[in-house]
Each structure stands twice: as C-alpha cells, then as structure tokens.
C-alpha cells in the first residue's frame, strides 16, 4: 500500500497492467478505476514509435484526449469492463503483437488490450 502523505491527493498514475504472469489471470475494470489510475494522452501519434507501437486499423491522433490504459497478457487471460458502453475502434501493433483499441462512448476512456486477451465489453450495437 502507498504510504499516507498529506501532499498526495491522487494515486500514482498507472499506464499499463501485465496479466502475462503465470497461468490465466483476470482483470475487471470500471470507469472510476480508469478515471483514478490512468493518465491522458501518453500514447499518441508522437509517442507511438518510442513506445513500440504502430497504427493498425486504428490511427492514433496527435492528441488522444482520453484516459488510456494498456493491458498486456496472453492466451487465457481475461479483462472485463464493468460499466460503460464501448466501441472496438480497431487495432494497433505493439511489441507484443496486435492490440485491440476500445474507446468508451462517453469519450473519456481508452483501453489498449493485447489481442491475445479474451475481452468482455458492453459494446454499442452496430447502427
Ligand atoms: Ca496470463
């Protein structure tokens, strides 16, 4: 646990989870978790190369004005979005292979999830 500090009004930002570990791991996330933990705009068209990402079917913008969380993992791992409505916005290619990009329809959140992970999101119905 983080030590209490009078000056620490916020939790430390987290940019990535890694579920690879041993065996099958699961992660459940709500919008409040993303709001509290994940920073804005750390992965965009300017930072992608340095971070080992290239565009797939998703094209990173110069400014990705969303809380962004990267989730690495392997086959058998699962992530579940506990709330919100999401769209599968496409793919990026990273050092670990393909990643799915999920954007929340409220415009505030983006999950970049290793495509090997079994992802459960409440997706907006196709129109
Ligand atoms: Ca795993």
How are the SSEs ordered, and which strands pair?
Blueprint: E1 16-18, E2 26-29, H1 31-37, H2 48-51, E3 54-55, E4 67-72, E5 78-81, E6 86-94, E7 97-104, E8 109-114, E9 118-120
Parallel strand pairs: 1-4, 2-5, 4-8, 5-9
Antiparallel strand pairs: 3-6, 6-7, 7-8
The structure holds calcium ion.
The site of calcium ion has 10 residues, from loops.
Give your account of this protein's structure:
This protein is mainly beta. It has one domain. It is 9% helix and 35% strand. The chain is built from two helices and nine strands. The protein has helices at 31-37, 48-51; strands at residues 16-18, 26-29, 54-55, 67-72, 78-81, 86-94, 97-104, 109-114, 118-120. It has a six-stranded mixed β-sheet with strand order 1-4-8-7-6-3. Strands 2-5-9 form a three-stranded parallel β-sheet. Mean pLDDT is 90; it is low at 1-10. Residues 19-21, 23-25, 73-74, 76-77 line the site of calcium ion (CA).
Strand content: 35-45%
Q: Determine the fraction of residues in helical runs and give it as a percent range.
A: under 10%
The largest sheet is: 6 strands, mixed
What is the average per-residue confidence, as pLDDT, rounded to a whole number?
90
Q: Which strand order do you get reading across the main beta sheet?
A: 1-4-8-7-6-3
Q: What is the number of helices?
A: 2
Shape: globular
The hetero compounds bound to this protein are: calcium ion
Q: What is the H-and-E element order?
A: EEHHEEEEEEE
N-end to C-end Cα span: 45 Å
Structural class: mainly beta
* CA-atom Rg in angstroms: 15 Å
